[in-house]
Amino acid sequence: MPLPVSDVDVQPFSTQDEWLPAQGFVGIQGMPGTAKGCRLRLEKLAGLKPAIKRKRTGHKGYEYHVSAATMSLKTESEHGKDVFTFLSEDDEQLNLWVPLLKTMSPQSRKVLLQQALALLAQDLSNTPDSQA
After folding, report:
1. How crowded is residue 69: how many other Cβ atoms within 10 Å of its Cβ?
2. What fold is seen in the domain 3-79?
């Protein structure tokens, strides 16, 4: 039985064998029987967990992490709707961050995270509660 999307632990991946194009998922239990069906399902899953999708190197299109085969879309309406509402209505600039982070190198992501944490610590130290 596939796991709900929110229960699957998606880590940064490096092993080439763990990534497949959509047609590589055809025939895997729980996945559609056609490449187009797999691609559509994988795109929905990638909308919820962007880390399972990456641009194929040296080819057109995308490839997906094998962990996507164990994910379930049953919770999509519960989790996905909230995520997309949050991204599109509450903070339009947040929509820009995901594509930017996906294109950055791991070292650049680390530097950006350190800068963000330093700014957050500075903001928290300047709150009215801390100045009392």
Report:
1. 20
2. Arc Repressor Mutant, subunit A (1.10.10)
